[in-house]
UniProtKB/TrEMBL annotation:
Cofactors that this protein relies on: Mg(2+)
Organism of provenance: Geococcyx californianus
Origin superkingdom: Eukaryota
Protein's name according to its UniProt entry: PHOP2 phosphatase
Keyword list, A-Z: Hydrolase, Magnesium, Metal-binding
Lineage: Eukaryota, Metazoa, Chordata, Craniata, Vertebrata
InterPro entries in the cross-refs: HAD-like_sf, HAD_hydro_PyrdxlP_Pase-like, HAD_sf, Pase_PHOSPHO-typ
NCBIfam families assigned: DKMTPPase-SF, HAD-SF-IB
UniProt similarity note: Belongs to the HAD-like hydrolase superfamily. PHOSPHO family.
Positions annotated to bind Mg(2+): D8, D10, D179
Active site: D8, D10
Amino acid sequence: MKFLLVFDFDHTIVDENSDTWIVRCAPGKKLPSGLRNSYRPGHWTEYMGRVFVYLGDSGVKEDEMKRTMTAIPFTAGMVDLLSFIGKNKELFDCIIVSDSNTVFIDWILKAADFHKVFDEVFTNPAAFSSTGYLTVQNFHAHYCAKCPKNLCKSQVLKEFLDKQLERGVSYTQIVYIGDGGNDLCPVMLLKKDDIAMPRQGYTLEKKISQLARDLSPVECSVQVWSSAVDIMSYLQLLIKK
């Protein structure tokens, strides 16, 4: 009996958007309006690429970025939840599917010593160039019209589950924990024995509620959380069953 926990990162594990948090490194802690206004819907990763060029041009170095990122606050109760999962790894496989990037997530999880809690992290690949600039790429190419250009989370989840099945691993239940609009696509993939846990007051909860009002509800169960302690209480009940 094994459970799969799927986490979003921004506004779920951490209580901020890691991509906008990095702006604290910019001169005056803000971006020029021309750069801010250059974002096009669905093309966030390209936009962040331009932000990283601006930070590099402004002389912001890797160590300053790392210091800033590792000060990002975890969501209420999340430290307790991740510690609980870490102590029960024989029952839980745990992955992150996020629109952030490998460098930020790696820094944040390692600084808090939570990197061992997660079996895999699926996010946009990032690295520092030979000139010391942070660069980021799209996670993959996909054909899902509902998702941003760089990442379809349901495709990631489906490929992970297929790969696990090939290894002989299937899950009693999938628990999907997220907050954003781009978490709806993978939630639609979940079956009736699975559970979606949208963060209270955020876009994912609103979209799931709207589907129910439109009489096309999601197939899985839904349980809203406001503190990660709510998620931990659910998982504690799950492993007692």
